[in-house]
Amino acid sequence: MSMMKTSKGDGQVKRKTRYVLLGLLQEEELSGYELKQIIDRRMIFFWQESYGQIYPELKLLQEEGLIEEVVPEETTSKREKTRYRITQAGMQCIKEWLAKENEKDTARSEFLLKLYMSQNSDQEVMRGHITNFMKQAEKQLEFFQQCHSQLTNCLEVHENHRQIVDVLNLGIGQQKLYIAWCKELLSRE
Asked: 82 near 58, Cβ under 8 Å?
């Protein structure tokens, strides 16, 4: 069964990518590259998007009048970044989506899948996977803690900082849990 919904009347498939982009564009004007960087840094523990999803969706959002290009005042190079801003229609779209009931959340982890099925594998290879997973969690934890510290010092700068801190708290807890769990697995003989 597909998790995608069809929009009313036009038969177009609505993807969650649009809501990620609209939500981030509520904060500030951004380019496609900047949107990808924010998703990869701030949301990595619960959301991923590829450039192949972002750029076509930006085009659709623009065609639907939910976002618009921001024309730079002065062009300093031939390849000036195209930036986007949300429109009133885009603000209404995100507001309506926020009010809808959530679909079932899903998670995918190749590492956990391998660990789950590793009964006949080389245990040193699996220990290497566990060690790498723990190192990734430690790196992510450090980044989340830096973001948390910066945002808690300026909660009033943007109206969404408090919500970002709330989500970061979950990410911090999740990374700490992953690290402790990996250490427990690695301590087994």
From this structure: no
Q: Which of 66, 51, 130 is nearest to 97 (CA)?
A: 66
8 Å CB contact between 95 and 154:
no
Euclidean distance between CA atoms 15 and 27, whole angstroms: 20
Give the three-class secondary structure for 97: helix
Residue 158 · residue 27 · CB < 8 Å? yes
Distances (CA, A) of 31 to 6, 98, 167: 27, 23, 23
pLDDT per residue as tens digits for the range 9-51: 333 335 789 999 999 999 889 999 999 999 988 888 788 899 9
**What is the residue-averaged pLDDT of the chain?**
84
DSSP letter for each residue of 138-186 = HHHHHHHHHHHHHHHTTTTTSTTHHHHHHHHHHHHHHHHHHHHHHHHHH
